Please model this.
Amino acid sequence: MVPRAQRNCAGTPLSAANFRENMKLSPLFWPIKLKRGVIYILDETLLPQRLKYIKARNYLEACRAIKQMKTRAVGQVLLVMYTFLLSKRQNKDLVKVALAINATRPTLSFKFLTDMVLGWEKSGAPLERNILGFLEMLKAKRIGQAKQVAGMLKDGEVILTHCNISGLMPLIGRFAKEQGKSVSFFATETRPYLQGSRLTAWELMRAGFDVTIITDNMVAYLLSLGKVTRVIVGADHLALNGDIANKIGTYQIAVAAKYFKVPFFVICPPPSRLKTGKEIKIEIRPPDELKIFRGIRLAPKEVKAYYPAFDVTPAKLITKHIYLEV
Model:
């Protein structure tokens, strides 16, 4: 599986392999590495205070990192593929590995990936070559998504984003800048893990872009003031009818954007086999994740808490899907 070459604005062929040399990528764009029998995982729960990689030496440690949200979004996809690669080299039972991976988080379904890998293994195809080819293709496709979005932007755009799209937002900004466009950003805090303020704001500032943090409950007021020209979010799950599941809070932003006639774009993964968003299983995280943050208790110990990690945004509220086809 060899990715089609990308081209930069001057028309020079640009592959995913040498793209980093031509345009610096956020560490969140590709937060997982495999070196000498160890998977290195960028611990996103420590950002922005510390840029630290934790180690996974087997599939159980990798699955634990996914459950604990040490990595999320595209990082989970990369970790799944590198876990299969490591497990193959360790002569592990890949069916057992797949079952463990599939049991980690329900909303971002890994079954598409695990079925694909097990299919390669069953067919006798060279598994390592297929996994590495898939990863190279994924990198090229993500770069292509960012370039596609940048091409749709106008000079002076003010983009509102929610949660974090694993390094794509600063890349969109850089492509827009190459095209002579100025863009700025608003990032929601994204409660309760604060991915917007800890990750998105950090990587956008690191890339030199103007970014302003707002709390999640400021969105409608901000839109009413005409301060936002476009909303761009990611998605953890895409149903066949165009409904998406994304970080909790996305749905209400889409409703507000529709009301105020602000375009709402979604950068999507490949669609699953589910017909509509109603079939997507929503992950319910432990109540203490709302009540405690980094060891600090934020609410009474006895109070009840409810934390659905995702919500479903109907396709009718989405102006445009930016698809990733693999």
